[in-house]
Protein backbone atom coordinates (compact mmCIF):
# COMPACT_ATOMS: atom_id res chain seq x y z
CA UNK A 1 0.00 0.00 0.00
CA UNK A 2 1.84 3.10 -1.22
CA UNK A 3 -0.87 5.41 0.17
CA UNK A 4 -3.29 4.73 2.99
CA UNK A 5 -6.25 2.75 1.71
CA UNK A 6 -8.54 1.19 4.28
CA UNK A 7 -9.95 -1.32 1.82
CA UNK A 8 -6.48 -2.58 0.93
CA UNK A 9 -5.69 -2.84 4.64
CA UNK A 10 -8.71 -5.09 5.20
CA UNK A 11 -7.75 -7.22 2.18
CA UNK A 12 -4.30 -7.66 3.72
CA UNK A 13 -5.94 -9.03 6.87
CA UNK A 14 -8.32 -11.32 5.02
CA UNK A 15 -5.60 -12.64 2.68
CA UNK A 16 -3.44 -14.08 5.47
CA UNK A 17 -3.22 -17.85 5.10
CA UNK A 18 -0.03 -19.23 6.72
CA UNK A 19 -0.01 -16.70 9.59
CA UNK A 20 -3.77 -16.78 9.98
CA UNK A 21 -3.50 -17.56 13.70
CA UNK A 22 -2.45 -13.95 14.19
CA UNK A 23 -6.04 -12.87 13.55
CA UNK A 24 -6.91 -14.44 16.92
CA UNK A 25 -4.40 -12.27 18.78
CA UNK A 26 -6.09 -9.66 20.99
CA UNK A 27 -4.25 -6.65 19.53
CA UNK A 28 -4.65 -7.70 15.91
CA UNK A 29 -8.30 -8.50 16.49
CA UNK A 30 -8.94 -4.98 17.86
CA UNK A 31 -7.13 -3.41 14.89
CA UNK A 32 -9.21 -5.55 12.53
CA UNK A 33 -12.43 -4.47 14.27
CA UNK A 34 -11.35 -0.83 13.93
CA UNK A 35 -10.74 -1.38 10.21
CA UNK A 36 -14.13 -3.06 9.74
CA UNK A 37 -15.80 -0.09 11.46
CA UNK A 38 -14.02 2.46 9.27
CA UNK A 39 -14.99 0.55 6.13
CA UNK A 40 -18.65 1.09 6.91
CA UNK A 41 -20.19 3.91 4.90
CA UNK A 42 -21.17 6.14 7.82
CA UNK A 43 -19.74 5.04 11.20
CA UNK A 44 -20.29 7.41 14.09
CA UNK A 45 -17.41 9.35 15.61
CA UNK A 46 -18.25 7.86 19.02
CA UNK A 47 -17.88 4.32 17.63
CA UNK A 48 -14.56 5.21 15.99
CA UNK A 49 -13.20 6.72 19.22
CA UNK A 50 -14.26 3.67 21.25
CA UNK A 51 -12.72 1.14 18.84
CA UNK A 52 -9.57 3.23 18.46
CA UNK A 53 -9.04 3.34 22.23
CA UNK A 54 -9.82 -0.37 22.63
CA UNK A 55 -7.00 -1.09 20.18
CA UNK A 56 -4.62 1.34 21.90
CA UNK A 57 -5.37 -0.24 25.28
CA UNK A 58 -4.64 -3.75 24.01
CA UNK A 59 -1.40 -2.67 22.35
CA UNK A 60 -0.07 -0.90 25.44
CA UNK A 61 -1.19 -3.57 27.94
CA UNK A 62 1.78 -5.84 27.22
CA UNK A 63 4.77 -6.01 29.59
CA UNK A 64 6.70 -3.39 27.61
CA UNK A 65 5.17 -0.53 25.63
CA UNK A 66 5.86 -1.16 21.97
CA UNK A 67 4.86 0.16 18.59
CA UNK A 68 2.54 -1.75 16.29
CA UNK A 69 5.50 -2.74 14.12
CA UNK A 70 7.39 -4.10 17.11
CA UNK A 71 4.36 -6.05 18.18
CA UNK A 72 3.76 -7.64 14.77
CA UNK A 73 7.41 -8.67 14.48
CA UNK A 74 7.20 -10.49 17.81
CA UNK A 75 4.01 -12.23 16.72
CA UNK A 76 5.72 -13.46 13.54
CA UNK A 77 8.71 -14.87 15.41
CA UNK A 78 6.64 -16.71 17.99
CA UNK A 79 3.75 -17.91 15.84
CA UNK A 80 3.24 -21.62 15.33
CA UNK A 81 1.94 -22.32 11.83
CA UNK A 82 2.46 -24.76 8.94
CA UNK A 83 5.62 -22.97 7.78
CA UNK A 84 7.26 -22.54 11.20
CA UNK A 85 6.58 -26.19 12.10
CA UNK A 86 8.23 -27.36 8.89
CA UNK A 87 11.08 -24.86 9.11
CA UNK A 88 12.08 -25.96 12.62
CA UNK A 89 12.81 -29.44 11.22
CA UNK A 90 13.86 -28.82 7.61
CA UNK A 91 16.21 -26.41 5.81
CA UNK A 92 14.48 -23.98 3.44
CA UNK A 93 15.41 -25.87 0.27
CA UNK A 94 13.52 -28.92 1.57
CA UNK A 95 10.25 -27.02 2.06
CA UNK A 96 7.68 -27.00 -0.74
CA UNK A 97 7.87 -23.90 -2.94
CA UNK A 98 4.13 -23.33 -2.64
CA UNK A 99 4.49 -23.03 1.15
CA UNK A 100 7.47 -20.68 0.79
CA UNK A 101 5.59 -18.46 -1.68
CA UNK A 102 2.49 -18.32 0.55
CA UNK A 103 4.66 -17.42 3.53
CA UNK A 104 6.45 -14.69 1.58
CA UNK A 105 3.14 -13.11 0.53
CA UNK A 106 1.85 -13.26 4.11
CA UNK A 107 4.96 -11.48 5.35
CA UNK A 108 4.45 -8.67 2.85
CA UNK A 109 0.85 -8.31 4.02
CA UNK A 110 1.94 -8.25 7.65
CA UNK A 111 4.45 -5.52 6.81
CA UNK A 112 1.62 -3.43 5.33
CA UNK A 113 -0.46 -3.99 8.47
CA UNK A 114 2.45 -3.17 10.79
CA UNK A 115 3.11 0.25 9.24
CA UNK A 116 -0.42 1.62 9.59
CA UNK A 117 -0.06 4.77 11.67
CA UNK A 118 -2.38 6.42 14.14
CA UNK A 119 -2.10 9.63 12.13
CA UNK A 120 -3.40 7.95 8.97
CA UNK A 121 -6.47 6.62 10.73
CA UNK A 122 -7.17 9.91 12.48
CA UNK A 123 -6.84 11.87 9.24
CA UNK A 124 -9.18 9.41 7.54
CA UNK A 125 -11.73 9.85 10.35
CA UNK A 126 -11.43 13.64 10.27
CA UNK A 127 -12.11 13.68 6.53
CA UNK A 128 -14.80 10.99 6.31
CA UNK A 129 -16.48 10.55 9.70
CA UNK A 130 -16.55 13.80 11.66
CA UNK A 131 -19.65 15.97 11.26
CA UNK A 132 -18.78 18.84 13.64
CA UNK A 133 -15.86 20.65 15.22
CA UNK A 134 -16.41 18.92 18.56
CA UNK A 135 -15.93 15.47 17.01
CA UNK A 136 -12.81 16.68 15.18
CA UNK A 137 -11.36 17.98 18.44
CA UNK A 138 -11.84 14.65 20.22
CA UNK A 139 -10.44 12.56 17.35
CA UNK A 140 -7.43 14.86 16.91
CA UNK A 141 -6.56 14.37 20.60
CA UNK A 142 -6.51 10.56 20.41
CA UNK A 143 -3.10 9.13 21.48
CA UNK A 144 -0.54 8.00 18.95
CA UNK A 145 0.77 4.41 19.02
CA UNK A 146 4.14 5.09 17.39
CA UNK A 147 6.59 4.83 20.28
CA UNK A 148 10.34 5.38 20.44
CA UNK A 149 11.85 2.79 18.10
CA UNK A 150 14.86 2.47 20.43
CA UNK A 151 12.76 0.59 22.95
CA UNK A 152 13.54 -3.07 23.54
CA UNK A 153 11.54 -5.60 21.53
CA UNK A 154 11.44 -8.20 24.25
CA UNK A 155 12.73 -9.28 27.66
CA UNK A 156 16.14 -7.97 28.69
CA UNK A 157 17.56 -11.48 28.64
CA UNK A 158 16.29 -12.36 25.16
CA UNK A 159 18.53 -14.60 23.07
CA UNK A 160 21.08 -13.42 20.55
CA UNK A 161 19.25 -15.33 17.81
CA UNK A 162 16.08 -13.44 18.67
CA UNK A 163 17.82 -10.05 18.62
CA UNK A 164 19.41 -10.75 15.22
CA UNK A 165 16.07 -11.71 13.67
CA UNK A 166 14.46 -8.62 15.18
CA UNK A 167 17.07 -6.45 13.46
CA UNK A 168 16.48 -8.16 10.11
CA UNK A 169 12.73 -7.42 10.10
CA UNK A 170 12.99 -4.02 11.79
CA UNK A 171 15.35 -2.69 9.11
CA UNK A 172 13.66 -4.32 6.10
CA UNK A 173 10.87 -2.83 4.00
CA UNK A 174 10.34 -6.13 2.14
CA UNK A 175 9.47 -8.77 4.68
CA UNK A 176 8.57 -11.25 1.96
CA UNK A 177 12.27 -11.43 1.07
CA UNK A 178 13.15 -12.40 4.65
CA UNK A 179 11.75 -15.93 4.36
CA UNK A 180 15.23 -17.48 4.38
CA UNK A 181 16.25 -15.57 7.52
CA UNK A 182 13.00 -16.56 9.21
CA UNK A 183 13.43 -20.18 8.19
CA UNK A 184 16.92 -20.23 9.74
CA UNK A 185 15.53 -18.67 12.92
CA UNK A 186 12.90 -21.41 13.27
CA UNK A 187 15.46 -24.11 12.41
CA UNK A 188 17.74 -22.91 15.22
CA UNK A 189 15.18 -21.93 17.88
CA UNK A 190 12.11 -24.02 17.17
CA UNK A 191 8.69 -22.47 16.71
CA UNK A 192 5.82 -21.18 18.76
CA UNK A 193 6.21 -21.18 22.53
CA UNK A 194 9.57 -22.97 22.27
CA UNK A 195 11.03 -20.10 20.26
CA UNK A 196 9.78 -17.55 22.76
CA UNK A 197 10.87 -19.15 26.04
CA UNK A 198 13.72 -21.38 27.16
CA UNK A 199 12.25 -22.29 30.55
CA UNK A 200 8.81 -23.74 31.31
CA UNK A 201 6.83 -25.11 34.19
CA UNK A 202 4.04 -27.69 33.96
CA UNK A 203 1.08 -26.49 36.00
CA UNK A 204 -2.70 -26.22 35.92
CA UNK A 205 -4.14 -23.32 33.92
CA UNK A 206 -7.90 -23.10 33.96
CA UNK A 207 -8.08 -26.43 35.75
CA UNK A 208 -6.10 -28.27 33.07
CA UNK A 209 -2.34 -29.04 33.33
CA UNK A 210 -0.41 -27.20 30.65
CA UNK A 211 2.97 -25.76 29.75
CA UNK A 212 3.63 -22.20 30.93
CA UNK A 213 6.58 -20.26 29.58
CA UNK A 214 8.57 -18.36 32.21
CA UNK A 215 9.07 -14.71 31.27
CA UNK A 216 12.00 -14.09 33.64
CA UNK A 217 13.78 -17.34 34.50
CA UNK A 218 16.60 -17.49 37.03
CA UNK A 219 19.51 -15.84 35.11
CA UNK A 220 22.26 -17.84 36.83
CA UNK A 221 25.17 -18.92 34.61
CA UNK A 222 27.94 -21.47 35.11
CA UNK A 223 30.45 -18.64 35.51
CA UNK A 224 28.59 -17.50 38.64
CA UNK A 225 29.59 -20.59 40.64
CA UNK A 226 32.52 -21.01 42.99
CA UNK A 227 33.44 -24.56 43.98
CA UNK A 228 32.02 -27.99 43.03
CA UNK A 229 33.71 -27.72 39.62
CA UNK A 230 34.36 -31.47 39.33
CA UNK A 231 30.79 -32.43 40.25
CA UNK A 232 29.39 -29.87 37.83
CA UNK A 233 31.74 -30.95 35.01
CA UNK A 234 30.14 -34.38 34.76
CA UNK A 235 26.70 -32.82 34.25
CA UNK A 236 28.07 -30.31 31.72
CA UNK A 237 29.79 -32.98 29.64
CA UNK A 238 26.63 -35.08 29.57
CA UNK A 239 24.58 -32.04 28.48
CA UNK A 240 27.03 -31.15 25.71
CA UNK A 241 26.67 -34.65 24.27
CA UNK A 242 22.90 -34.26 24.42
CA UNK A 243 22.73 -30.92 22.56
CA UNK A 244 25.04 -32.34 19.88
CA UNK A 245 22.63 -35.23 19.30
CA UNK A 246 24.94 -37.85 20.86
CA UNK A 247 23.79 -40.51 23.35
CA UNK A 248 23.47 -39.05 26.86
CA UNK A 249 22.16 -40.16 30.24
CA UNK A 250 19.48 -39.08 32.65
CA UNK A 251 21.11 -37.46 35.68
CA UNK A 252 20.38 -37.60 39.40
CA UNK A 253 22.03 -34.84 41.43
CA UNK A 254 22.01 -36.14 44.97
CA UNK A 255 23.38 -34.55 48.12
CA UNK A 256 23.02 -32.16 51.01
CA UNK A 257 20.77 -29.13 50.89
CA UNK A 258 22.18 -25.82 49.69
CA UNK A 259 25.03 -27.33 47.68
CA UNK A 260 23.89 -25.98 44.30
CA UNK A 261 22.15 -28.98 42.74
CA UNK A 262 19.11 -27.11 41.41
CA UNK A 263 21.14 -24.05 40.46
CA UNK A 264 23.46 -26.25 38.41
CA UNK A 265 20.58 -27.52 36.29
CA UNK A 266 19.19 -24.00 35.77
CA UNK A 267 22.61 -22.62 34.84
CA UNK A 268 23.16 -25.39 32.30
CA UNK A 269 19.79 -24.61 30.70
CA UNK A 270 20.80 -20.96 30.36
CA UNK A 271 24.26 -21.83 29.06
CA UNK A 272 23.00 -23.96 26.16
CA UNK A 273 19.89 -22.00 25.24
CA UNK A 274 21.41 -20.78 21.98
CA UNK A 275 22.01 -24.42 20.96
CA UNK A 276 18.30 -25.15 21.26
CA UNK A 277 18.18 -26.51 24.83
CA UNK A 278 14.96 -25.97 26.78
CA UNK A 279 14.08 -26.86 30.37
CA UNK A 280 10.67 -27.95 31.66
CA UNK A 281 10.16 -28.18 35.40
CA UNK A 282 7.53 -30.67 36.54
CA UNK A 283 6.54 -30.36 40.20
CA UNK A 284 6.50 -33.72 41.93
CA UNK A 285 2.73 -33.67 42.42
CA UNK A 286 2.27 -33.53 38.63
CA UNK A 287 4.59 -36.40 37.73
CA UNK A 288 1.56 -38.47 36.75
CA UNK A 289 1.30 -36.08 33.77
CA UNK A 290 4.76 -37.10 32.55
CA UNK A 291 3.46 -39.02 29.50
CA UNK A 292 1.38 -36.00 28.45
CA UNK A 293 4.47 -33.77 28.61
CA UNK A 294 6.48 -36.22 26.50
CA UNK A 295 3.79 -36.38 23.83
CA UNK A 296 3.72 -32.58 23.69
CA UNK A 297 7.45 -32.22 22.96
CA UNK A 298 8.07 -35.39 21.00
CA UNK A 299 9.29 -34.63 17.49
CA UNK A 300 10.14 -30.98 18.20
CA UNK A 301 13.46 -29.56 17.01
CA UNK A 302 14.51 -28.33 20.46
CA UNK A 303 16.08 -30.59 23.03
CA UNK A 304 14.49 -30.71 26.46
CA UNK A 305 15.67 -31.30 30.00
CA UNK A 306 12.74 -32.40 32.15
CA UNK A 307 13.67 -31.07 35.58
CA UNK A 308 12.26 -32.59 38.77
CA UNK A 309 13.46 -30.73 41.84
CA UNK A 310 13.69 -32.22 45.33
CA UNK A 311 12.56 -35.65 44.21
CA UNK A 312 11.38 -38.11 46.89
CA UNK A 313 8.45 -40.51 47.13
CA UNK A 314 6.30 -42.33 49.57
CA UNK A 315 6.16 -45.97 48.55
CA UNK A 316 2.46 -45.76 47.75
CA UNK A 317 2.67 -42.87 45.28
CA UNK A 318 1.43 -43.49 41.76
CA UNK A 319 3.91 -40.96 40.34
CA UNK A 320 6.75 -43.26 41.42
CA UNK A 321 5.75 -45.95 38.98
CA UNK A 322 5.10 -43.37 36.24
CA UNK A 323 8.62 -41.93 36.53
CA UNK A 324 10.15 -45.39 36.74
CA UNK A 325 8.37 -46.39 33.54
CA UNK A 326 9.53 -43.27 31.72
CA UNK A 327 13.14 -43.69 32.82
CA UNK A 328 13.32 -47.18 31.46
CA UNK A 329 11.04 -49.99 30.45
CA UNK A 330 7.76 -48.30 29.53
CA UNK A 331 5.73 -49.19 26.47
CA UNK A 332 5.95 -45.57 25.27
CA UNK A 333 9.65 -44.78 24.86
CA UNK A 334 11.19 -41.54 26.05
CA UNK A 335 11.83 -39.38 22.94
CA UNK A 336 15.44 -38.89 21.81
CA UNK A 337 15.15 -35.14 22.39
CA UNK A 338 14.39 -35.54 26.12
CA UNK A 339 16.55 -36.12 29.20
CA UNK A 340 15.49 -36.18 32.83
CA UNK A 341 17.55 -34.26 35.40
CA UNK A 342 16.41 -34.65 39.00
CA UNK A 343 17.72 -33.42 42.35
CA UNK A 344 17.18 -35.15 45.66
CA UNK A 345 18.37 -35.19 49.25
CA UNK A 346 17.72 -38.95 49.34
CA UNK A 347 20.10 -41.34 47.66
CA UNK A 348 17.42 -43.88 46.75
CA UNK A 349 14.54 -41.39 46.32
CA UNK A 350 11.95 -43.52 48.14
CA UNK A 351 11.42 -43.53 51.87
CA UNK A 352 12.77 -46.76 53.32
CA UNK A 353 11.52 -48.24 56.59
CA UNK A 354 12.99 -50.83 58.93
CA UNK A 355 9.74 -52.72 58.38
CA UNK A 356 10.85 -53.28 54.78
CA UNK A 357 13.65 -55.47 56.13
CA UNK A 358 11.53 -57.17 58.76
CA UNK A 359 10.23 -59.62 56.21
CA UNK A 360 13.63 -61.25 55.98
CA UNK A 361 12.98 -62.89 59.37
CA UNK A 362 9.35 -62.49 60.27
CA UNK A 363 6.60 -64.61 61.70
CA UNK A 364 3.97 -62.05 60.75
CA UNK A 365 1.64 -63.56 58.11
CA UNK A 366 0.99 -60.07 56.69
CA UNK A 367 4.65 -59.49 55.82
CA UNK A 368 5.87 -59.97 52.26
CA UNK A 369 7.28 -63.42 51.57
CA UNK A 370 9.81 -61.97 49.10
CA UNK A 371 11.03 -59.08 51.24
CA UNK A 372 14.26 -58.87 49.27
CA UNK A 373 12.25 -58.25 46.08
CA UNK A 374 10.39 -55.38 47.72
CA UNK A 375 13.63 -53.81 48.87
CA UNK A 376 15.20 -54.13 45.43
CA UNK A 377 12.08 -52.61 43.87
CA UNK A 378 12.57 -49.53 46.00
CA UNK A 379 16.24 -49.23 45.17
CA UNK A 380 15.74 -49.70 41.43
CA UNK A 381 14.40 -46.21 40.69
CA UNK A 382 17.62 -44.32 41.44
CA UNK A 383 19.58 -46.92 39.48
CA UNK A 384 17.65 -46.01 36.36
CA UNK A 385 19.42 -42.68 36.21
CA UNK A 386 22.52 -43.30 34.13
CA UNK A 387 24.59 -40.75 36.05
CA UNK A 388 24.46 -39.93 39.75
CA UNK A 389 26.46 -36.92 40.92
CA UNK A 390 26.96 -36.38 44.65
CA UNK A 391 27.04 -32.83 46.07
CA UNK A 392 28.26 -33.08 49.68
CA UNK A 393 28.36 -30.28 52.24
CA UNK A 394 31.75 -28.54 52.11
CA UNK A 395 34.31 -28.90 54.85
CA UNK A 396 35.65 -25.74 56.50
CA UNK A 397 38.41 -25.21 53.93
CA UNK A 398 36.07 -25.60 50.96
CA UNK A 399 33.42 -23.40 52.57
CA UNK A 400 35.90 -20.57 53.08
CA UNK A 401 37.18 -20.95 49.51
CA UNK A 402 33.63 -20.46 48.24
CA UNK A 403 33.16 -17.40 50.46
CA UNK A 404 36.43 -15.85 49.30
CA UNK A 405 35.66 -16.55 45.65
CA UNK A 406 32.19 -15.00 45.86
CA UNK A 407 33.52 -11.96 47.70
CA UNK A 408 36.18 -11.47 45.03
CA UNK A 409 33.57 -11.72 42.27
CA UNK A 410 31.52 -9.01 43.97
CA UNK A 411 34.57 -6.76 44.37
CA UNK A 412 34.26 -6.75 48.17
CA UNK A 413 37.43 -5.41 49.76
CA UNK A 414 37.97 -6.80 53.26
CA UNK A 415 40.85 -8.27 55.23
CA UNK A 416 41.07 -12.04 54.60
CA UNK A 417 41.25 -12.99 58.29
CA UNK A 418 38.28 -10.74 59.05
CA UNK A 419 36.35 -12.25 56.14
CA UNK A 420 36.96 -15.80 57.34
CA UNK A 421 36.09 -14.95 60.95
CA UNK A 422 32.79 -13.32 59.94
CA UNK A 423 31.97 -16.23 57.61
CA UNK A 424 32.45 -18.80 60.38
CA UNK A 425 30.29 -16.74 62.76
CA UNK A 426 27.57 -16.63 60.08
CA UNK A 427 27.80 -20.36 59.50
CA UNK A 428 27.36 -21.10 63.21
CA UNK A 429 24.42 -18.72 63.60
CA UNK A 430 22.48 -19.78 60.53
CA UNK A 431 22.24 -22.79 58.22
CA UNK A 432 25.57 -24.57 58.61
CA UNK A 433 28.24 -24.93 55.93
CA UNK A 434 26.91 -25.00 52.36
CA UNK A 435 27.31 -23.11 49.09
CA UNK A 436 23.94 -21.48 49.75
CA UNK A 437 25.03 -20.30 53.21
CA UNK A 438 28.21 -18.88 51.67
CA UNK A 439 26.19 -16.91 49.13
CA UNK A 440 23.77 -15.66 51.79
CA UNK A 441 26.72 -14.50 53.91
CA UNK A 442 28.28 -12.64 50.97
CA UNK A 443 24.88 -11.06 50.17
CA UNK A 444 24.77 -9.78 53.76
CA UNK A 445 28.41 -8.75 53.64
CA UNK A 446 27.94 -6.70 50.49
CA UNK A 447 25.32 -4.59 52.20
CA UNK A 448 27.22 -4.36 55.48
CA UNK A 449 30.80 -3.97 54.23
CA UNK A 450 31.34 -0.56 55.81
CA UNK A 451 30.02 -1.74 59.18
CA UNK A 452 32.52 -4.55 59.76
CA UNK A 453 35.76 -3.01 58.54
Automatic annotation (TrEMBL):
One Pfam assignment = DUF815
Q: Does the keyword ATP-binding apply?
A: yes
Question: Residues in domain AAA+ ATPase?
Answer: 247-364
Q: Which residues form the signal peptide?
A: none
Could you confirm whether the keyword Acyltransferase appears in this record? Answer: no
**Listed InterPro entries:** AAA+_ATPase, DUF815, P-loop_NTPase
For this UniProt record, the keywords arranged alphabetically read as follows:
ATP-binding, Nucleotide-binding
Q: Which GO terms describe its molecular function?
A: ATP binding
List the PANTHER family hit by this protein, alphabetically: SLR0930 PROTEIN
The name on file for this protein is ATP-binding protein
- Lineage, uppermost ranks: Bacteria, Bacillati, Bacillota, Clostridia, Eubacteriales
Amino acid sequence: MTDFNINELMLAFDSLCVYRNLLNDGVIKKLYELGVLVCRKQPGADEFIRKYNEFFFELTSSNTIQSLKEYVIKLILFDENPFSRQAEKLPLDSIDEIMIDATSKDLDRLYDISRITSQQLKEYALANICTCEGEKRFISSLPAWEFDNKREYGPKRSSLNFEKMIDVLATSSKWGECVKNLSEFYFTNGSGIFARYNAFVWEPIGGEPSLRGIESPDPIRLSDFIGYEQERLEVIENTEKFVKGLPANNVLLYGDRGTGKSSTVKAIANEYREQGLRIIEIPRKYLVDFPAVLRLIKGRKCRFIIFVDDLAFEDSEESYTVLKSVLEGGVENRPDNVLIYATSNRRHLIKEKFSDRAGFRSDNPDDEVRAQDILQEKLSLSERFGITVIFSSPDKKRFLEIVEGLAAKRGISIDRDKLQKEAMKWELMYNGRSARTARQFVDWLEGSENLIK
